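Summary of Year 1 activities. Much of the first year was spent building the evaluation harness for sequence design. The harness presents a backbone, in tokenized form, and records the residue chosen at every position. We chose the following record to illustrate the format because it has been used consistently in internal testing since the harness was completed.
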């Protein structure tokens, strides 16, 4: 069974940085794509960043491009989200997700992902 555990959330001032981590129990076709998604009470779930792990190819939402970076360790046991220059609009609960790679699917579409972590809260204050 795929197990995903997020960590690294917390409170940070606007303009600051935060790094989220997602520990992944396995590297198989079930976890070839890994993504970070976020959700607030008044917004739909949003795809933030995705990494195609075999190639380390990445995709980003326009709202975070240039500020956030998704990456993984060499053993592919952990996926990171480096959040720089965070803004109040980044406040949300962030979820790590895993799924197979589908060439015909938008990587930032949450419907592609079969496994989800419990989430970690990120709060950005002015």
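For this record, the design step produced the sequence shown next.
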């Amino acid at each position: 069974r795929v197990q995903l555990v997020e960590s690294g959330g917390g409170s940070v001032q606007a303009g600051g940085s935060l790094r989220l981590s997602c520990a992944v129990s396995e590297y198989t076709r079930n976890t070839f794509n890994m993504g970070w998604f976020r959700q607030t009470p008044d917004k739909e779930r949003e795809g933030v960043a995705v990494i195609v792990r075999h190639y380390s190819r990445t995709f980003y939402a326009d709202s975070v491009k240039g500020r956030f970076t998704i990456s993984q360790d060499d053993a592919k046991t952990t996926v990171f989200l480096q959040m720089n220059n965070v803004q109040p609009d980044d406040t949300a609960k962030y979820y790590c997700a895993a799924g197979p790679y589908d060439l015909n699917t938008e990587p930032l579409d949450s419907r592609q992902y079969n496994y989800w972590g419990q989430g970690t809260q990120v709060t950005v204050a002015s």
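The chain has no helices and eleven strands. Quantitative recovery figures across the full test set are reported in Table 2.
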